[in-house]
Amino acid sequence: MFENYRDLLLNIFLVFLPITLYVHVFKTNRTSAYRSLMTFLFFCPALILTMTFPVEINGSSFDFRAVPVAIGSLYGGWNTSLMLYAALLLYRFINGSAHPFQYIIAAIPTFFMILWFTIKFHKFTLVQKILSSVAVYLIVRVSILVLYFYLTDNVRMLKQFASFGMIETIVLQGIITGLYVYLLELFLKNARLQDEVIKSEKMRVVSDIAASVAHEVRNPLTSVRGFIQLMGKQDLTAESRQYYKTICLDELDRAQQIISDYLTFAKPEPEKIDTIHLNHEIEYVANVLLSYANYQNVQVITQLPDEVISVLGDKYKLRQALINIGKNGIEAMPDGGQLTFTLRRTNRALLITITDTGVGMTAEQVNRLGTPYYSTKDKGTGLGTMVSFSIIRKMQGNIEVTSEKGKGTVHLISFDSK
Fold this sequence. Notes:
The chain folds into two domains: 5-199, Arp2/3 complex 21 kDa subunit ARPC3 (Orthogonal Bundle), CATH 1.10.1760; 271-416, 2-Layer Sandwich (Heat Shock Protein 90). Helix 2 (19-27) packs parallel to helix 10 and helix 10 crosses helix 12 (278-295). The chain is 64% helix and 13% strand. The N and C termini lie far apart (83 Å). It has helices at 5-16, 19-27, 32-52, 66-76, 78-94, 100-113, 115-120, 126-151, 156-163, 166-231, 238-263, 278-295, 315-331, 363-368, 383-394; strands at 55-57, 60-62, 274-277, 298-303, 310-313, 337-345, 349-356, 398-404, 408-416.
């Protein structure tokens, strides 16, 4: 029947081309007028190109113009339909086709015939959309053709066209129209599901950030609570009371800094790079953890050299990382034990070792440490460890964890010695 399968395949390709673009129109949060305009801009080229490259059937030319007109009208609305009709009539007039005014008169009634479908289409089920798209196609294709031949006194040409394969062509284009709607609805459904997944992921991220903030802020607040309890002792010296007060204020400042860091998460600020005296920071962290360690019957030990060892970085974030690791070590010793902070210098590196005598971990657990939302604790989020590892890496440091089940865990933090 078809003399040139290449033109047939080309027309099918041109018809289906807008299907990949319309999904992007659906995903934009623009006005209905914008969507209608973009739908027209996507389907108009398919309309023009199918009219430019018709299919030869038994010596007569047929094209697929009715398919983009039908689909574009249904998905774009009446204003898109109006623009597509205008483009169809204008291009046919520019091409110098016969009887242009009779064709316009034949086309106008079909525009009003499909208005009902364009208004109700978005409320239809999938099957109703497929059937209505085929119906709109038949209205555009058959009605225009019958009215046009009637107005030009060529009704007898309908029988000749039928014998040339016009009926088979109309059936084929009807099938293509229905298939087009099915595929387009499938793509739109996938796009909606993708949007739902993205929204769900955003909500999960917000929830995780909230959990992370709560986890990070809880550490300094726990320290403050412990030192406030110590300050309530009657036999406490004025010097100790002042020292505990200073630590409480420092920890509250650290909590404020943590909150500020998360508030500026979307727009990170440059880190405050200072010279950090590691001896002092380790002593500070040990004192902060002391009250919590006493509550858990854990002894905190520091082994520091006489020389002052320094490194460049943000001291508040380093404190945050060391306190997180130390707190995890204390919680790994429910029956008591020792938490040891060791600082030493080698020829190539500055080494901080944090050792606990807790329950330890398996090799698999060690490998997963520092990954998002993994924790060995029943109620842990894993975010504290992830943040701690991230802080150390941002300071150009490295952290290695070794552990043995039932014997404890060792965190080895190293910085280049310069």
